[in-house]
Design the sequence.
């Protein structure tokens, strides 16, 4: 990035933020401004792209938190105090969570926090498979219920295959079943996060009450409140993820993804085989044999070295013994052997000619 | 007294201040240029497949005071330049300053050709050949071994099965008892079908491990860290430190499938190191074979390897010369914090000197 470009984006940055202090503001203004700016800005090098993305995403998270707090002031009874307004928004968040949905609009900074690990999982899981992992994600509103959809899909997927392409049909049915199984595991896993979100709301409320009861100095910055929210969320999370329930959910989610991935690989191999291309199965067989051969080779080399060392030691001992037994005669065999070698070398050389 | 008192104009000002700092921080970051890690001069003395064995040069060009070389065995799951992140945050530099002759194994980045590398290949193969190389170079029969994290577990296995090649063993933030009640990673691993996972993926992607490590403390590591960093990013040195750490955290090599399968099953799931049933290739791993002096360094705030998981070593080693060093900090702080630089390498140096 050149100095001029630097100057330009920095100016734009400052203009964006100054505009937010104006009386006419958009909805979620801080987060929106960051979005707008990040669209106009490209990181200097790809190395920084990820870090910039993370900084901006979490900056947005914090701004969303501030926006939520700001809205409490704007929309409610001006006579009400900040604490009751904030507690009010926590209660509304909790009501939303009771319905099983993340009420992002009610408190985006707050609910967004609990979606982060799930989003990170989705991103990681998507990088492992070419299959869409959200076959039933987002079903809601006028759409049929999720269990109903699952039931219908499962019925369809267990219908026996027919005719010439029966095996291919069965493969596809299995793929569909594995995708549904993954989605079920993910929904259950995400459900646990909703539950943890609810508990973290309770924890924040309790912590605020404790502070109040203890007569501790009041929280007077968004940052401090944000940190309290993080602390409570982390506590609730740490307790839950050590439970048997979580261990089961985590195992089921991972295993469901891996089963899907394994089946997908098998299908890919079949397609490659049909095109007379090397498959992963074949590659695995070769690599396994190759690694075993390398192990054997290393082991033989190591044994050879040990034998060589042993041989050298024995030879040295023999020489020492010979010297001790007959000091004057020890050089003779060497001279003999040298003469023998010379004769052999000459014979070889003659043969070559 | 109310739990909090907010004024709308204060909230607005706070957001403005934060935005300003964020902007300044991004500005600083965008001018930093390439981020260098691994700062101490070194020479490659042995290479095999993707592994490179390095020997570090002494800063003043002098010779090490302690004649017994130390081999650092780092974990497979992250890159070993964490031990030499920058000049003033370098375990390697500290060990050199303590008069040690330091070698380090860089495992490289395994790819699919390495899919069938097993623990046997890593421990009885690569590590053993590195030890032999160093022994030959120094005309010694044994050297000192310093294992870090998973590399510490490898070092325990190696030292227990190649007793005659290890003079002294130092373990740092090393898991030994994988089933202590506070071991989050181990709990999560219990119901993973690791055979299915390795069969499905071949090698285990570094990205998956990253997700796992981040979700140990998701809100601090995915959110709060970035929000907090904004406060210091204006400063170029702080920004560089931050970027170095970011680079390291997300620089996660893929894991060779077979070695991963064995490691998870034997250690995380079956806890075989402490129940005495671990095997690496043809070798049975018995910790009571560890008859050489052992220094066990652990971090009291370690969220990855809980202190109890490391300290369990005490009850299983065969040596009477067992020492523990508790560092008040976390799993990462033990390499990079200012306090660690002052405490850990000099203590290791002194402990080794006493036994040389």
Sequence:
């Amino acid at each position: 990035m050149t100095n001029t470009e630097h100057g330009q984006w920095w100016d734009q940055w400052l203009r964006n933020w100054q505009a937010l202090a104006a009386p006419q503001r958009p909805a979620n203004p801080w987060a929106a401004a960051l979005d707008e700016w990040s669209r106009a800005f490209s990181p200097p090098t790809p190395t920084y792209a990820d870090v910039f993305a993370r900084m901006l995403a979490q900056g947005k998270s914090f701004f969303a938190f501030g926006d939520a707090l700001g809205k409490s002031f704007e929309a409610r009874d001006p006579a009400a105090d900040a604490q009751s307004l904030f507690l009010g928004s926590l209660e509304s968040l909790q009501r939303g969570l009771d319905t099983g949905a993340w009420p992002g609009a009610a408190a985006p900074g707050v609910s967004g926090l609990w979606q982060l690990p799930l989003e990170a999982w989705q991103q990681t899981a998507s990088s492992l498979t070419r299959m869409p992992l959200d076959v039933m994600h987002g079903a809601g509103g006028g759409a049929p219920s999720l269990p109903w959809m699952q039931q219908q899909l499962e019925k369809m997927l267990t219908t026996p295959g027919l005719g010439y392409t029966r095996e291919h049909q069965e493969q596809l049915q299995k793929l569909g079943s594995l995708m549904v199984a993954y989605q079920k595991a993910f929904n259950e896993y995400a459900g646990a996060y909703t539950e943890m979100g609810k508990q973290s709301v309770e924890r924040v409320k309790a912590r605020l009450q404790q502070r109040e009861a203890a007569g501790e100095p009041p929280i007077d910055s968004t940052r401090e409140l944000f940190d309290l929210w993080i602390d409570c969320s982390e506590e609730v999370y740490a307790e839950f993820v050590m439970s048997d329930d979580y261990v089961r959910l985590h195992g089921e989610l991972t295993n469901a993804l891996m089963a899907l991935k394994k089946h997908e690989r098998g299908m890919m191999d079949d397609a490659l085989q049909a095109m007379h291309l090397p498959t992963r199965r074949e590659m695995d067989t070769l690599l396994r044999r190759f690694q075993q051969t390398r192990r054997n080779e290393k082991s033989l080399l190591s044994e050879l070295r040990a034998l060589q060392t042993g041989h050298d030691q024995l030879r040295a001992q023999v020489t020492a013994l010979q010297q001790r037994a007959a000091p004057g005669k020890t050089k003779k065999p060497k001279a003999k052997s040298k003469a023998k070698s010379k004769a052999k070398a000459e014979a070889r050389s003659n043969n070559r000619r | 007294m109310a739990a909090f008192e907010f004024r709308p104009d204060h909230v607005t000002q706070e957001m403005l201040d934060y935005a300003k700092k964020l902007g300044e921080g991004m500005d600083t970051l965008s001018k930093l240029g390439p981020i260098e890690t691994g700062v101490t001069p070194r020479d490659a003395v042995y290479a095999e497949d993707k592994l490179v064995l390095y020997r570090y040069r002494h800063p003043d060009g002098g010779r090490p005071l302690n004649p017994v070389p130390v081999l650092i065995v780092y974990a497979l799951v992250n890159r070993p330049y964490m031990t030499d992140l920058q000049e003033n945050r370098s375990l390697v530099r500290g060990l050199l300053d303590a008069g040690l002759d330091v070698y380090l194994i860089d495992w490289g980045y395994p790819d699919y050709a390495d899919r069938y590398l097993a623990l046997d290949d890593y421990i009885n193969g690569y590590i053993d050949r590195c030890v032999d190389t160093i022994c030959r170079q120094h005309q010694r029969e044994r050297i000192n071994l310093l294992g870090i994290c998973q590399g510490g577990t490898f070092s325990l296995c190696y030292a227990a099965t190649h007793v005659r090649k290890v003079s002294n063993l130092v373990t740092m933030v090393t898991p030994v008892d994988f089933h202590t009640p506070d071991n989050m990673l181990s709990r999560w691993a219990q119901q993973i079908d690791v055979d299915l996972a390795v069969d499905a993926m071949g090698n285990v992607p570094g990205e998956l491990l990253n997700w796992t490590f981040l979700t140990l403390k998701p809100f601090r590591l995915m959110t709060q860290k970035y929000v907090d960093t904004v406060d210091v990013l204006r400063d170029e040195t702080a920004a560089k430190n931050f970027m170095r750490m970011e680079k390291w955290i997300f620089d996660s090599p893929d894991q060779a499938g077979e070695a991963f399968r064995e490691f998870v099953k034997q250690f995380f799931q079956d806890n075989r190191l402490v129940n005495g049933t671990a095997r690496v290739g043809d070798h049975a791993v018995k910790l009571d074979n560890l008859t050489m002096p052992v220094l066990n360094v652990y971090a009291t705030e370690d969220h990855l390897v809980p202190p109890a998981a490391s300290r369990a070593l005490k009850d299983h080693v065969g040596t009477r010369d067992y020492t523990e060093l508790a560092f008040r900090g976390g799993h990462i702080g033990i390499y990079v914090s200012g306090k660690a630089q002052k405490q850990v390498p000099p203590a290791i140096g002194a402990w080794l000197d006493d036994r040389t």
In short: Chain A touches chain B through 92 residues (CB under 8 Å). Confidence is low (pLDDT under 50) at residues 102-108, 139-143 of chain A.
